[in-house]
Amino acid sequence: MKKVNLPMLGMVAILSNPAFAADEIEQLRQQLDLLKQDYERRISNLEQRLEQAESQQKAAASDPATTISPEAAPVQVVAEQPVSTATPANNSEANSFNPAISLILDGRYSYFSQDPDDYQLSGFMLGGEAGPGERGFSLGHSELIMSANADDKFYGRFTLALAEHDGETEVEIEEAFFQTLGLDYGLQITGGRFYSDIGYLNSQHAHQWDFVDAPLIYRGLFGNQLLDDGVQLNWLAPTDVYLSFGSELFRGSRFPLSADAGNGIGAYTVYAKAGGDVGISNSWQAGVSYLDADTDGRSASGHGHSDTQDTHEPPAFSGDSKTWGVDLVWKWAPDGNRRQRNLQLQYEYYRRDDDGMLVEGDEFGTYQGEQSGWYAQAVYQFIPRWRFGLRYDALDSAAAGSDPDLIHEAGLDNEGHKPSRWSLMTDWSNSEFSRFRLQYNHDESSPVVDDQWMLQYLLSLGAHGAHKY
User: What is the value of pTM for the model shown?
Assistant: First the structure.
């Protein structure tokens, strides 16, 4: 039996129609021309990206984020790094594809054996986003992200964050910054509102974390994360191993900096990071950080802190604040292939020294405080899509001053209790764009133990790129 080519018969029938041949064929030709122009533009952009990657390869050859096999990195859901695709002669055409838009959906169900509105972290003044979160079903920390290359020299990013507190949805401009592309000598400048690059976890968005919540030391010192308006200068050294140095100048208006800098600088940071590969299955990164702030009026304002329920303002600290930190990350994947199995070990330690005054209305007193803490975690992917994680937090503090009552009311007296917490989590990722996580915390932030269960979903919609090591 002969086979009848139905598409060919249909085409013959259509072309035999004079009206169609006069109008529709011309439309098809125009559409074909548009497709050809689009493909040519895309090919031109890809060629430009290839040329830039080759030109930057020598300077970035020792960067762990580029030298480690992509198979060795853990699955994460975020759109991050800028890649220059524009050419000076054709910027308007390149920008026709911009901006890249992505949406991070974060929702959860939480069970706490203690009321989160009464949460306290012994010996620490809570602020920013500090607190365990909401009971029951709630919106987590969702984000709308827009990013693009303005041209061949500048990249921009805007992040709008949505979170729920006390039954109300809060909207905040979380990030709004520019970043230079392709500067000479391994230099890069970032300006605007951005997460500080101190430590390891601080610059990562919450949906990149391996656990639902931040480590206790981040909660106690930074209100979960250090974020402010300012400028950053980073230098990537031309060495065989990854070696990077940076410094940031901040306005210092946000917790925990709380500076009144006026036209000046309220805080600054310096940091150094190093890393490399050990064989084909292992990689590492280590860093040291320092933060210095002229604090003016830092007070407890964290979500869920009991002091926020009082009718009067809690005591505020003003004075010198200095913070040191170290971080270490080790990643393992057999033969560099993380799809089947991989392991990540992570450790950070911070210490802050405060020296100044506590003020509450007409009352005031001297204050000298030392706060420190660390966390260590291990996350193991034992089969594709499934991971298991264990984390332990430990904090300590010491406070002295002329008015013990003010120190106690400010939440800086640990009353002999050293906060700690251990956490277990397991998560399942259908792809790099979706993840479901179950986590348990045995939280001893205060003398009253809080057993916490959290079920979280993360969905990443839209354009996505690579992120840091």
Answer: 0.80
